[in-house]
Amino acid sequence: MQGFFATPLGVTILTVLEALAIIVPVLLMMAYLTLAERKVLAAIQLRRGPNVVGPFGLLQPFADAIKMVMKETIIPSGANRVLFLMAPMLTFGLAVIAWAVIPVNDGWAIADINVGILYLFAISSLGVYGIIIAGWASNSKYAFLGALRSAAQMVSYEVSIGFVMVSVLLCVGSLNLNDIVLAQRHVWFCLPLFPMFVVFFISGLAETNRSPFDLPEGESEIVAGFFVEYSAMAFALFYLGEYTNMILMSGMTTILFLGGWLAPFGIEPFTWLPGPIWFILKVCAVLLVFIWVRGTVPRYRYDQLMRLGWKVFLPLSLLWLVLTAGALMLFGWLPHA
User: Fold this and answer.
1) Which run of H or of E encompasses 82?
2) How many helical (H) and strand (E) elements, i.e. helices and strands, does the chain have?
3) Is the dihedral angle over the CA atoms 164, 169, 171, 177 positive or is it negative?
4) CA end-to-end span of the chain
5) Rounded to the nearest 5 degrees, what angle is found at the Cα of 311, between the Cα atoms of 309 and 314?
6) CA gap 145, 300 in Å, rounded
7) In b/e form, how buried is each residue of 19-39, taking b as 16+ CB within 10 angstroms?
């Protein structure tokens, strides 16, 4: 059997199986994240949430999926048909392929590449194209306004995210995500780099167009923004892409600041739980904060959004990067890559 997996066909089959082992759980997690969000928001608003389809509403995501598949995809008469349909596929595809380098345990990644952090940064930068194409191809002023807002927002906050990542990389001396987690054996980076942890999380909210930074979708001003003309599965792919990006940002937060699959500070009673379970628990905790913020914080004005990104987060992340490099040089902690 080992000889078979050494052949080109065997390598292909093994790669497909590895991809499915990551993608299927991510898609299931994404489906139930929609249910969890509705349940948590319902609890915040003192109501029940979905509770009819299946026991405790557990089959609601499958009912939603069946409804979306059975609906007709309506394409506006003035839209560019090819780009209109390609945009949601591009958005969802980029959200999924980013998981290729995410390690859920020591060495458990489809592609354990030495520049994993650069791969993630490149994929997240490409995500804006799907939204811009959707807004332009819809031939709708509201969709185009939403796309322009999203492009400006994502570009603004990616700069801060980049500086935060560099601060972490300085402390590790490697761009490999596996090495970043292993460097947190004794202390998670969320403690010494706490301001960067906060900046990264809030910038993650802006990157995924989540409240209070959901201006590209601003229902009260531009009627759902860049996907106002979408319906059925084309709309569902945007929806899937947004929630998959939420899980991805939570995974990146876990890897960069919360010790990945490592038990809290190596404390003995916690080490009996397998690494992937710790990783999933931490991702779920970050996702809970994503949902909690949506249920409690009002939407920012657009000028507030831009001021926070360029006048607060950018100088703060740049200053902290300089301080981190200076401290590492001063105390001789700078790792050798």
Assistant:
1) helix 81-97
2) 13, 0
3) positive
4) 37
5) 60
6) 17
7) beebbeebeebbbebbbbbbb
3-state secondary structure 267-316: CHHHCCCCHHHHHHHHHHHHHHHHHHHHHHCCCCCHHHHHHHHHHHHHHH
| 258: three-class secondary structure by DSSP | coil
Tell me the residue type at 127. Answer: G
Q: What is the pLDDT along the chain (337 residues), one digit of tens a residue?
A: 556 556 777 767 777 787 777 778 888 888 888 888 889 989 888 888 888 888 888 888 888 888 888 888 888 887 788 888 888 888 888 888 888 888 888 777 777 788 888 888 888 888 888 888 888 888 888 888 878 888 888 888 888 898 999 999 888 888 888 888 888 888 888 888 899 999 999 998 888 888 788 776 655 665 666 777 888 888 888 888 888 888 999 999 999 998 888 877 656 556 677 778 888 889 999 999 999 998 888 888 888 888 988 999 999 999 999 998 888 887 766 554 4
Q: Against a cut of 0.70, is the pTM above it?
A: yes
| Length in residues, the chain | 337
Contact call for residues 217 and 129 (beta carbons, < 8 A): no
Closest CA to 33 of 224, 195, 240, 207: 240
